Amino acid sequence: MFELLLLIAGCYLLAALLVHLAFWTYRGRRRASNHYVLIADKGQKNMEWYLRSLFSFSSLIGRDIRLTVVDHGVTEETKAIVERWRRSGKDVQIHVHQEHTDNNLKTHSGKRSQLDSVAHQMLWLLQAEGIVSEAEHAILVDLQNPDDLSKIPF
Q: What is the pTM of this model?
């Protein structure tokens, strides 16, 4: 009887040791992260909700995210929201883009294939400017396009 109790206690201690060893091994590794690029204009009234949704989902699944808000004429209120999230320790930045890309988005706003090409051009420009790296998985979300909102995990 005593040997059986000792065997059970030994198995429990071995399992606890393995769990702690796995935790410390995993903790040393860098967690994979996604990079969300939100294209926002002055009509974005739900920016706080988008940020809350993204960061709560990332903490739920245990993946870090980087977030870049591309400024196409956002309001001061939206800038304040992004700045508050950045000050709280989240990896959020706002990026003011060149005027010609803004005009491109407005002139091509009707056709889906042209919007896709403008989105690819935007990602390429962000890579050229060093905002997005080629190695990370960048997800471009145009907040003006209702179809793109499905890319945000709600």
A: 0.66
